[in-house]
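I'd like us to work through together how a protein chain folds, taking it slowly. To get us started, please write out a protein record for me. Go ahead whenever you are ready, and we will take it from there:
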Amino acid sequence: MLPGTSAARCVGSHIRRFSQSGQWPRVMVARTCPKISCSVPNKVIDIRQNALFRMASVNIRGFATTVQSLQANRTANNNACYSANTMSIATYEEVLDLPNHPEKLLIDVRNPDELADTGKIPTSINIPLPQLEEGLKLDDEAFKAKFGRDKPSTSTEVIFHCKMGGRAQKATDLASSLGFTNARNYKGSWTEWAEKQGK
């Protein structure tokens, strides 16, 4: 027979794991659970029918409510992430208008030899991706001396671009992890810019 406390903890661990994958209302649960940790058999148990959950003092109706709450939270979180990801993408039109917005900063994270081959987008400064973290951690004076622009504050809108958007997304994620709350990715990057500029 399942020990109530141990089984409840076991069930809870699987509930958390399966809530993230969206596999409701079925969950894999071990038939024996002598300790807090358990082994999961190759059998799926229907939580609405199996008596083991009742022995573990799991209220099925309460669990269903919890499931609905978890699903609602998951949906809300997904929507919030979608909104954040949408806001972090800069468009060609925004980049084209950057000369009218000196308060914004465009950083090209390509390697210098790539810029030598193609040229650069107006107003951009070059900080190759491998050097980006070090560059963003420079003090204000050192940053301006090295790149010719004031160092952005953590609230400055900073747009990153590369050749096709992949490295720019990594740069955006890195800047966000360093506390830059308005880091954005020009997803079209140089490829889109060159195409629309007829280069």
